[in-house]
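Weekend entry, working from home. Most of the wet-lab plans are on hold until the incubator is repaired, so I used the time to fold the two sequences that have been sitting in the queue since the last round of cloning. Logging both here for the record. First:
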Amino acid sequence: MTTLIWQPDLAIAAARAAGLEVGAVDIEILPRPHKQPGRLPVGKMAVYLFSSAWQVLKIGKAGPNSHARFSSHHYAPGRAMSTLAGKIIADREWPGGPRPDPGYIGEWIKRNCDRVNLLLDSGLGTAAMTSLEEWLIRELRPRYEGTA
């Protein structure tokens, strides 16, 4: 199964909009169902996005020391309300059928969402990461906007 919204041209446009060389962004596509990612690679930072069958749900970023934010926080409802799990649980207008049970939300995300990780060398600086994230938010309009 291919990712719903992700296309190679989007990666090129996002990199250019962030002032980066096209080759500066490594793309990791985790189509649904996907495994929870491991730790953020050493020396890397990331912009990531989750999409369902009907829309982009969340775009976020993780700096080079934000391993938990990258790998696990979005799959657990108790971490923070800004995570994908927290946003889905709090969504009073959830469009995806019955709202997933909080105890099952991490599994629901892995089974029903594509995830795309855009990995950058941490030496590029957080401004490049933030610029990439902001451009993707403007372009893709996720249901749960935000930087967390």
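Second, folded right after the first finished:
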Amino acid sequence: MLRTDAVYGIFGAGGHGREIAWLATQSGLPSKCLRFVVDAEFAAAPILNGIPVLSAEQFARHHRGAPVFVAIGDPQLRRGAVARLRLAGNRFPPLIAPHATVSPWAQYGEGVIVFPGATVTVDVRLGEHVHVNANCSISHDVEIGPFTSLSPGATLCGHVRVGRGVFVGAAACVINGAKGSPVIVGDDAFIAAGACVIGPVSAGAKVGGIPARPLRNRTAG
């Protein structure tokens, strides 16, 4: 439950951060409760979209232990930011858009963010700090590991298991597996925008195309 008498940090003030700030207000938090939090070298303006911008040091000094939404799209950078903030005593509430559809039979961990238009159906498990962007579709019996990012419009069909720190590009699709034989996407894999994954993806692999095949160079998702 979000509290309107508390201060919440949004770590990161780029495009993803500004979107998450908007999502927080849509979820009932007034702008006066929010603070953008950035490393000192990124503090370009004192106010952004009506929300104060603080350095990480300022936020820690004035709001130690406050809840924080970690607004970093890259899974590996998000993992590092969470580790730093956890050492500083911060907490990580989930943030679920009121216009997302999340089944009561879905489970999600701390720091999970689900954007408007996303659908998360039955017997789904989202690990901590998973980001599910706008208009994603996650079907039944899907498990997603911590720090994974689903870009807008991504689709995971039934019986899919996604590892830790995976990046799934915009409008990418992973087809359905079967009970006892899920389609597996390994830890730290990268699936390019528009790709259609029809089989397992190895840990650390970068794939793209229809059907998805290994990429020589990482392409933007």
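Plan for Monday: verify the second prediction. The chain has a mean pLDDT of 94.
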